[in-house]
Amino acid sequence: MFTKVYIDSIPHVSFFQKHVLLNSDEYANLLKKQSKDPSDYCPDIVHQAPIAILDSLLTKAGRLRALYVRSTRHALIEVKPHVRVPRTFSAVVRKVKNYCRRQTCEASPLIKNPVTDHLPVNSRKIGLCCCC
Description:
By secondary structure, the protein is of the alpha+beta class. The protein has a single domain (2-114), classed as SPOUT methyltransferase, trefoil knot domain (Alpha/beta knot). It contains four helices and six strands. It has helices at residues 24-33, 43-54, 57-60, 89-102; strands at 2-5, 9-12, 18-21, 67-71, 76-79, 110-111. It has a four-stranded mixed beta sheet with strand order 1-4-5-6, covered by helices on one side. It has a two-stranded antiparallel sheet with strand order 2-3. Pfam families: EMG1. One of its GO terms (molecular function) is rRNA binding. Keywords: Methyltransferase, Ribosome biogenesis, RNA-binding, rRNA processing, rRNA-binding, S-adenosyl-L-methionine, Transferase. Belongs to the class IV-like SAM-binding methyltransferase superfamily. RNA methyltransferase NEP1 family.
């Protein structure tokens, strides 16, 4: 489960009104003006980590039931192993913008919190932390 994922978009002021996905590479100055930590906004990691997990031997052996992503807005997204995560980051950006606008995902539905309601009784929960 990925928690505290900063999946945010903002309306971009231009000729065409469109949403842009906030990331620290392009919008560091804007995030600093809003008193937000730019290092929190790394959607490329949210893209690469599920691909690595879904391509792992654990998944190929049928041992992974689902990945869960919880955003800072407490939206809980379930990603099943059969879902094909787009390989290019630009395709992921389009999907995330769609999610931010409509609050829906075609392949990965939003589910109700808490996540423990959706886990099997005797399942193993594996957690990773980058805060150490």
